[in-house]
C-alpha cells in the first residue's frame, strides 16, 4: 500500500488564491491524505490520477495557471546584471547572509568574496555570474522580508518571472524547487553554457533603436555574408528598440558593421561568453536534461512565466522540458511584460543586482509602478 504524504506551504507564503489548488504530489510513492481536497481537485480537472502498479500518481494540469490575473509581480534579473559590490548589503540580514554560506558549500568557492570584491573579469564569467545573480536575487527577497511591511509585500505577490537565468530564481521563489537544488542547477547550467561557448566561439550584441522586424532584416543581411557556423538570430526580445542578437563572432561583427545603415541608434556588445539562446548552446541541453531529470520539481505556488513561450506552466515535467529548451530558444521577455501589463498588473518589484528589468518595464509602460530591491 502506498504511503500517504502531503507537501504543503505555510499560510504566510502560499497565496490564498491558489491555496486549494497547490497541494501536490511530491514525487515519492504518495497520494493525497485529504480525500475531500482530492475529490474537489478531480472535479475541477486540475489533477488526473494515473495508476502505476499498486501506486496512484497524480499529474498536474499544465494549464492550471492559464487564466491568471496578476496584481503584484516579482521580476528577477539575468546574466549581465552582475556588478562588483553586490551582496554587501545582504550581510546585514542573517537570513540573506546564510544563503551565501550555503552557496559556498555547494559551489566549492567563496561566492561572497567574488561578489563583493571581484575582480570584475572573474565575476563576469558565466560560471560565476549565474550563481552570483541567483543567490543575490534571493538574498534581496530576504532583505525585503526583514523590512517593515516586507512580508506583506511578499504575500501579495501572485506572479513571478525572470530574464533567462532569472527564470530559475523565479521558480525557486515560487517553491518549484529548493534554494539548494536551484543553485545546483544554475551551477551546472553556467558550466554547460561556458563549455558550449568554448566549443564554438560566439557573441551577443544589443541593437538599440530598431523595431524587431528591422532587427530581423539586419540579421538576414548579415547572414548573407557569413558561413553557416557564423549565422546570427534575435536571441532576446527585450522591449521595443532593444533586441539582443546572438551568433557566430563573424556574424555579430557583420551586424555591428551594418547596423548604422539600418538606422540603428547604436550597438552594444554584451559581456557574455558566447551565443546564448541559439543553437550554439545545443551541447548544453543534454547535460541540463540529465540534471533536471534528477531534480525534484514541484508545481509552483503561483504562475511563473516561461521565457520560451511567455506562458505559465504547472506540470513539473513540462517545466523541466521548458528549462532545457530555454538555453537554445529566444527569450520572449517583451511578450511576457506586455501580457502582464495587459492583464492588469498593478506593481512590479525587481529583486537583485542592477535595474535592467525596471528600464524595460518603463519602456513598455512609462506609468508602470516599479520598485528595485537590491542586495
UniProtKB/TrEMBL annotation:
UniProt GO MF annotations: [acyl-carrier-protein] S-malonyltransferase activity
Annotated ranges, domain Malonyl-CoA:ACP transacylase (MAT): 75-372
InterPro entries xref list: Ac_transferase_dom_sf, Acyl_transferase_dom, Acyl_Trfase/lysoPLipase, Malonyl_CoA-ACP_transAc_FabD, Malonyl_transacylase_ACP-bd, Mitochondrial_malonyltrans
Coiled coil: none
A Pfam match: Acyl_transf_1
Protein name listed in UniProt: Malonyl-CoA:ACP transacylase (MAT) domain-containing protein
Originating organism: Citrus sinensis (Sweet orange)
Amino acid at each position: 500500500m502506498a504511503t500517504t504524504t502531503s507537501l504543503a506551504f505555510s499560510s504566510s507564503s502560499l497565496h490564498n488564491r491558489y491555496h486549494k489548488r497547490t497541494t501536490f504530489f511530491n514525487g515519492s510513492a504518495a497520494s493525497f491524505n485529504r480525500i475531500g481536497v482530492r475529490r474537489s481537485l478531480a472535479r475541477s480537472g486540475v489533477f488526473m490520477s494515473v495508476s502505476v502498479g499498486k501506486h496512484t500518481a497524480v499529474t498536474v494540469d499544465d494549464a492550471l495557471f492559464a487564466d491568471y490575473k496578476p496584481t503584484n509581480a516579482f521580476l528577477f534579473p539575468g546574466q549581465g546584471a552582475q556588478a562588483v559590490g553586490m551582496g554587501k548589503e545582504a550581510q546585514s540580514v542573517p537570513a540573506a547572509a546564510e544563503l551565501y554560506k550555503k552557496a559556498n558549500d555547494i559551489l566549492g568557492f567563496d561566492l561572497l568574496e567574488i561578489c563583493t570584491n571581484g575582480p570584475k573579469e572573474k565575476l563576469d564569467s558565466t560560471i560565476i555570474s549565474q550563481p552570483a545573480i541567483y543567490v543575490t536575487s534571493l538574498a534581496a527577497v530576504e532583505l525585503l522580508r526583514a523590512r517593515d511591511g516586507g512580508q506583506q509585500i511578499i504575500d501579495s505577490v501572485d506572479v513571478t518571472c525572470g530574464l533567462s537565468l532569472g527564470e530559475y530564481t523565479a521558480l525557486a521563489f515560487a517553491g518549484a524547487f529548493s534554494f539548494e537544488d536551484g543553485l545546483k542547477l544554475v551551477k551546472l547550467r553556467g558550466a554547460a553554457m561556458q563549455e558550449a561557448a568554448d566549443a564554438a566561439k560566439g557573441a551577443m550584441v544589443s541593437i538599440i533603436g530598431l523595431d524587431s522586424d528591422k532587427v530581423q532584416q539586419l540579421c538576414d543581411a548579415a547572414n548573407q555574408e557569413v558561413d553557416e557556423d557564423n549565422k546570427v538570430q534575435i536571441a532576446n526580445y527585450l522591449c521595443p528598440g532593444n533586441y539582443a542578437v546572438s551568433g557566430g563572432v563573424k556574424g555579430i561583427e557583420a551586424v555591428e558593421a551594418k547596423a548604422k545603415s539600418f538606422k540603428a541608434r547604436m550597438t552594444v556588445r554584451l559581456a557574455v561568453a558566447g551565443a546564448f539562446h541559439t543553437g550554439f548552446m545545443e551541447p548544453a541541453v543534454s547535460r541540463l536534461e540529465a540534471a533536471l531529470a534528477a531534480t525534484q520539481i514541484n508545481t509552483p505556488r503561483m504562475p511563473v512565466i516561461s521565457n520560451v513561450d511567455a506562458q505559465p506552466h504547472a506540470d513539473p515535467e513540462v517545466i523541466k522540458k521548458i528549462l532545457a529548451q530555454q538555453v537554445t530558444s529566444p527569450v520572449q521577455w517583451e511578450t511576457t511584460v506586455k501580457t502582464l501589463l495587459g492583464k492588469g498588473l498593478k506593481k512590479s518589484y525587481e529583486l537583485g543586482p542592477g535595474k535592467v528589468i525596471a528600464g524595460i518595464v518603463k519602456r513598455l509602460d512609462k506609468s508602470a509602478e516599479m520598485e528595485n530591491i537590491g542586495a
